[in-house]
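Quarterly update from the structural biology core.
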Amino acid sequence: MTNQTSTQSLASERSCGSCTECCRMMAVPELYKPAWILCPNCAVGSGCKVYPDRPQSCRDFLCGWLMAPYMGPDLKPDKCHVVFFQSDRHTMVANCDP
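Predicted structure, tokenized:
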């Protein structure tokens, strides 16, 4: 999600920018929004319209590309259409655009 950076350290020089792929590809249970459906709170290309009041699942989400300095620019979600996230300490998940 865009507009502000996470309190956890992000890979240097990385930001969401105009990427809003997580707003489309990830489920948001609090909004009954399934994966692969654009969130009604998403302003495509700029981010979340309710960022300060976003659901907890959005607050908890950490983009794998933002967090992993070893992922090149070609793996940014809006470029490769895959959202990466770490489901636990040992597992990286790739949520792919169908």
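The beta strands are 42-43, 47-48, 82-88, 91-96.
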